Description:
The structure holds 3 protein chains of 3 kinds. Helix content of chain A is about 75%, strand content about 5%.
Amino acid sequence: MTFSYFWSILFLSLHAMVPITLTAAGEVVGETAGLFNIGLEGILLLSAFTGALGAEAGGWWLGLLVGIGTGTVVGLFFGLINAYWKGNQLITGVGINLFALGFVAFGLQALGTPGFHDIPREARLPALQTPVGGLSPLVFVALLMPFLIHWFLNRTRAGLWVRAVGENPEAADVAGVPVELVRLLATTFGAALAGLSGAYMSVSWMGSVTKEMAAGRGFIALATVVFSGLRPILTLVGGFIFGFFDSLATWIANIPGVKEIVPWQFVSMIPYIATLLVVTGVIGRARFPKALGVPYRRE
Amino acid sequence: MPEPLLRAEGIVKVYADGTVALKGVDFEVRPGEIQGLLGENGAGKTTLTKIMSGLLHPTAGRIFIGGEPVRLRSPRDALERGIGMVHQHFALVDTFTSLENIALGTGLPLGPSLRHSVTELMERTGLKVPLDTPVENLAVGERQRVEILKVLSRKVKVLILDEPTSVLTPVETDELFGFLRRLKEERVGIVFITHKLREVMEITDRITVLRRGEVVGEVETRKTSAEELARMMVGEEIRIRGRRPVELRTELGEEARREAARARGKPVLVVEGLRVKGDGGDEAVKGVSFEIYPGEIFGIAGVEGNGQTELVEAICGLRGGTGSVLLKGREVLGLSPLELYRLGLAHIPEDRWKYGLILSFTVAENSILGRQRSPDFLGSLSILRWGRVFSHARELIRRFSIQAPGLEAPAKSLSGGNQQKLIVGRELSKEPEVVVAAQPTRGLDIGAAEYIRDILLEMRDGGKAILLVSADLDEVLALSDRVAFMYEGTFTAVTTPSEVDREKAGLYMGGVKA
Amino acid sequence: MRRLYASLRSVAESLLAAVVGFVVAGIILKAWGYSPISAYISLFKASFTDLYGFSGALANATPLILTALTFAMATRAGLFNIGAEGQMYLGALAAVAASLFKLPAGLHLIVALVFAALAGVLWALIPAVLRATRGVSEVISTIMFNWISRYLAFWLVANVLVDPYRAEKTITVLPTSRFPTLIRGTDLSYALFLALAAAAVIYFLLWHTVTGYEMRAAGENPFAARYGGVKSGKVIILVFLLGGITAGLAGATQSLGRPPTYAVYSGLPQILNLGFDGIGVAMIGRNHPLGIIFAAIFYGGLQSGARVMQLFAKIPLEMVRVVQGVIVLALALPELLRIFRLFRRRKLLEAKREGE
Lengths: 299, 514, 356
């Protein structure tokens, strides 16, 4: 493999890693607090769209901000229903996914370009140019975030609260921790990061919005969370693995010779098969918070 | 007389399902005093203290702190006002270290200053724990110390301890008492909840006795005795209608029945050296042996939390254990509930809503739970013959006078008593030879409770062997042919009801061995 | 009588959620500059006022009933099976594969259906086993299988089943293997009866057989169920396999029952998202076969009405999915009907107080 191949694969993988790692790292916080958000897929899609709109209105920084905001709003909604009102987390998540599918498709059509929308160059986040290729600044955010989250969960009092609330909400309640508030904030944070990831996908990485842009990444992020055993730093590893397979498909599809032998469809399957294998192999090793997915009621 | 730190006035608590836990209780905590709160299960001790610590809201009544009326909305509220509670089942996060658990209670951020203040606290109170070990790896006594440190780190004026010595060794108990005496000197008011008579005599200054949600006595410790306390705890009158009072049962009648049972042959259920681990990993049942003959009721009395639950679960296939359980001569320890049912054991579970019923299922559907694959109800192609199920359910309703809106009503719409009758009826329809009844009348109104007791007696007269586990002493004494008292995982006494008076019963239940 | 009241309450909840869905979607429409009123008028007029429109609704409802059953059955057993989508793709293609050889009419259709059911079952098998033996979350495994199935389907359409004359579609399903049309000139075929029959069978299974009893018990109270002798591993496998059958058949109704094409196009346009929509249908139908039938007709009507709405009111048809999403979200709120109950209880309390 030549030198330039190495860099291009690396960069492709890093770019593909960003949404997975960011979303997974954020969801680690949410799941540590005990809430399981399968609506991440929907948030990715939704914020990819709203982020694109924001970027066109006011530049890439607005786009990213709008994306984060979208995630935050959805996160608050999810947290309200599930932390305070003891709703059904799975149904809420599915609802978010359905809504996002509809809203984005609707929005794209309403914009006049059904199914697909390009973002003009000026609105995109410019890549940092290195001698070996362009790298989005958000890659560095994604590389840094897991460490920040690790520090937060393990070295701050707030992080202690988050861990307590997911492991034994009763003990936390008795100790005076506002259980529902902590859960709400934790899940909102995770959703906000997912929002950033979505905006990244449209504004920085792909430069466009499509109807099915998330392509299962929200669920891959969930699988990454499983893989990481709720250890934030491992979401980097997991994210990179999936990013690698993700970019492998693009790469293979463009190499003469390989293209003829291996049908692109099978290559596209690889990230999902890999996820499946990882999740199967890892179960039992990971230890999840005892109160994950269980609403907390006093008395 | 100094102003009490905390005063509760006229506290009434009625739970959502209608149970009346407290019927108007007055209670005071004074500074520099250790006050004991004594009572059997269901007396209301834990409910009262949960209200005082902000976990529950009273249905009526008021709380005064330092003379001012307050509304405690949450444990946080209570903590901020200086009321701290150390729970019986520790409110600790197992995966956290001691330091992290203590930090949970304080307002301090993690870091060197926290470690410093905790170390200082440990010095001051004399309670030492390893700070960086996950609490799940600590011994029980150490875990309790973590719990206490957690509460103390918040500068409490009132410290409530719920059954603190139930998990401690004698040495650890002494250490705890030493600490409590030191705390007294700091003018903290301490509430010590227990059912252990010797201890309450040793450590407290005053004792309040609760019975069935009411205060039945308040005495100074040095002016009373274990016997008097035992009497107050279990009461003088016999409340069970229609039973011959225990005192009136003649020795002769008992002996005759025992002879008849033995004449019928071998014991149906033989338990030997049974040891069962509890949820926390400690042994809850520490070597129990007994046998039950057909046509008799063997009762196990005792305050809840002394291993009865685990004992029943091990016998009925819901929990593992070591030792031996022979059902009709066959070793059954470790078999599943279904296999046990096929061998002739029926179980009226303590946790009605978890194991006994499927609340959202209809009365008819619940009436066959466990028997759904029996040929009585099964047609060809695994079709359920609802016609037969309905008549079976109707029969149960008739035989046990179950009040239900209809066969298709969800089980959750039935009252507690009727739910229990449904469960009892269903278990009996399995035609078992051994029936294990765990807390069968808990939470039921008088009429339903009486009904269930009558059924148990009927079963006994019909030749079944019954293991009755109940925290209701009157019930156990009135129904059993032989009775054992359970305390901290073993039997303190095995005797017959006629040989036990109220006082002795109280003593056995409180840990005094026969 | 109680049961009737409980069912009415479920219906009321779904209706209330539907209203919320339309209101919220209406707000979104307004925000984008469209008129909600004209949107909804054309939406409903199309599907529910004439026979042609209604037959379109029924045709759309057919696969939805089946995929909804997949999800609903699993939910009743306490599982979250969202794999209908992937199982359905393969079912559709397996049904097409039956046209690779010739058989007499009638028999051909049955064989095709069997193929489809088998495909669904095989695809559901692995997630089921993973869940039963290793406790692998079926949420993640079924989603991964959905995506793997999608790409597999793309490949099959383009390579194995491809029409030698028109590369963008599979071979056309032979006339002997098709569902006969129910109403001439419409999309509606006898596949509808297959879906209705499946719903009836599932209903019967769940409430009139021991197997169904045990499934429901495991879903409602796994502890008491275990105590009553229900083996959870068996339940899991069975529920997934049955779900695979209905999902596979759903795919078959589309490839065998949709005039005039009777084939599957690359990109899977006629079958895309039917599995996912089925989840929404199941939720609105409260996971009950009868409710599912009504919810499916409702959805189906919305879907065909959406096209009309796009034509006449110039509103993007994807708006219906927005409605669907909001309805599901509304159903997630346990408090939804508690609002009703709060009013009732307050009235009771007031009455009581007055009586004292």
